[in-house]
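Example record used in the benchmark description.
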Amino acid sequence: MKNMASVKDSILKTLIYSDIFSFPLSRGELWEYLVSDKKITQNEFNQGLLELINKKMIVYEKGFYAFSTKRSNIDRRLFNLPEVSQKINIAQKTVKVISCIPTIKLIGLSGGLAMYDADSEDDIDLFVVASKKTVFVTRFWILFALQIMGLRRTRFDKNPADKICVNMVIDEESLSWSQADRDIYTAHEIVQLKPLFERDCTYSRFVSKNKWINKFFPNFSIEKTDKSIYITGRDNLLFRMTGAIFGCSFFEFILRKFQESLIQRNKTREKVDIGVLALHPVDYRADTLYKLRLKFLELGLLTKL
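Model output (structure tokens):
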């Protein structure tokens, strides 16, 4: 049997990550998002959980695991379940509309809601993959549709609750993350992504291009991805012709210049490139990695982040 100390360390690392967001995990989530550099068997996992509970380091209550000092997070998650359900419903209805944009290849639920974590004041984050060299055309039409629907989240919204934030758009030629960004935070963002809509098996291609995530999360498997909340796009000749017009390089050039000028006015740390548009004014990645290092050191846990 694998050294039980390392099994327990993996469980603790996983709970530490979720605890940064005050979020307890179900047994299935703890297994799927288990932080480990090697495969762990179900028997080893079960034994590790039991020993940690017996040592009163963690608790299992109402279907969720949390640190013994953070029992209140379990009640918080249960309290927010209706809110989570409502926001996912809004996301699904919205995606049914914007998926008509022919240059969209994939729409995924990202951020806290992808982990089924949200309260009444939270917005809804979407991750989008566009067809090649249509990032700015795609974003323009998405924002146009959201504006008409009254769901567009803007930088200056004082009440972003239930608004849609398209915080990242990449094209299908930019699916693989760069070496510099291949850390536990980015890996977690990928494995927690919930596909809501896809064309041309883009979600499978996206995961395949980022196989490095299994170095952090060996239990993640695309076959186990929740398919209950997503739909697959169907194309026809008219649709493909419309997509060709939408994806015209001239329109992409014009809309890129237009959007870049708007982004530059209030730019903080947004990334704007030909195939990648990442609009994250707050560096959650750096903040999360910093907190992880502190908590790992506090418990005597070391790992490559």
